Amino acid sequence: MTKLRISTAAGVFDAIAEGPAEGRPVLLLHGFPQTGLAWRRQIEALAADGFRVVAPDQRGYSPGVRPDRPEDYRMGALVDDVVAITEELGWATFDLVGHDWGGAVAWWTADAHPGRVRTLTIVSTPHPRALAGALRTDTDQRERSQYMLDWRETPATEERMLADDAHLLRTVYAGKVPQASADVYVRQLSQPGALTAALNWYRSGRPDGTIGVIDVPTLYVWSTKDTAFGPAASEATGQWVGGPYRFETLHDVSHWIPEEAPEALNGLLLEHLRAHRA
Q: Of the candidates 142, 140, 128, which has an alpha carbon nearest to the alpha carbon of residue 239?
């Protein structure tokens, strides 16, 4: 894979890329606590099928875009990063894929810029309105999401996560992320200020404005062993998609779908992209 440095007004994003320069463009957005490397198996599969694939290390994960204030990680800024990256790459339209926090950014980007997003693929993360509804009415989802509130404590969270060779941070991967990849993530997040920047996504406050119904063709992939997102929000997500919609459930797979079940995800993703070529 090729390493890229993508310059924007916000700073320089590190990224990995593969596939022919003239290929149909696909942007992959990672979540916490990972980097663009989380998509390596998807990058390989998509590039082999002729797509041009780029997976950036998002705001806070790229050293060149690591502001100090939590408010600099509000959703509006994260969506602006997607727009700036794709404009720098020269992509008028693109297919957008996101997992975990990257999935949240992808939902909001598709809402704000539907004319630029050809297709949307979301892994794990329910539509924000579906998640909000579940948090109001579903005890199970409230319990699953408690960690989001706990991690807002600073600097205590960082100290706990990085103590004892980042033992607590490593437990987040639940043994489902390859050890070599987990080592890379931990090494990167152990750099001064890096983990605080990643946790600032949780500390930034509620998004500005509201998100509506998504009209672009959407594939949503959820897994039954996901500890962060339960069935209530996931099953309600289809109510917030007005365009062509496909909901797929992977059984006995954890939250870490791209790395734990790459073949299953790659097959679904390629089917989705091929079905919506226009």
A: 128
First CA to last CA distance, the chain: 27
Torsional class of 157: left (φ above 0), alpha (ψ -120 to 50), beta (otherwise): alpha
CATH, residue 130: 3.40.50.1820
Render pLDDT for 134-154 as a digit per residue (tens, 0 to 9). Answer: 999 999 999 999 999 999 988
The whole-angstrom separation of Cα 244 and Cα 246 is 7
Decide if 39 contacts 56 (C-beta within 8 A). no
Q: What stretches of 150-244 adopt beta strand conformation (E)?
A: 218-225
Segments forming the whole domain that contains residue 29: 2-275
Number of domains in the chain: 1
Please list the alpha-helical segments (H only) found in 13-120. 40-48, 75-89, 101-112
Tell me the pairing of strands 25-29 and 52-56.
parallel
Q: What is the arithmetic mean of pLDDT over 166-184?
A: 96
The pLDDT tens digits of the residues spanning 198-212 come to 999 999 998 888 999
What's the CA gap between 27 and 216, in Å, rounded? 15
Tell me how far CA of residue 124 lies from CA of 40, 42, 104, 115, 229, in angstroms. 17, 15, 10, 24, 7
For 121, the enclosing helix (H) or strand (E) is strand 117-123
The tens digit of pLDDT for each residue in 44-81 reads 999 999 999 999 999 999 999 999 999 999 999 999 99
**Sheet strand arrangement including 2-8:** 2-8, 11-18, 52-56, 25-29, 94-99, 117-123, 218-225, 245-254
pLDDT at 9: 97
The C-alpha atoms of residue 4 and residue 33 are separated, in whole angstroms, by 21
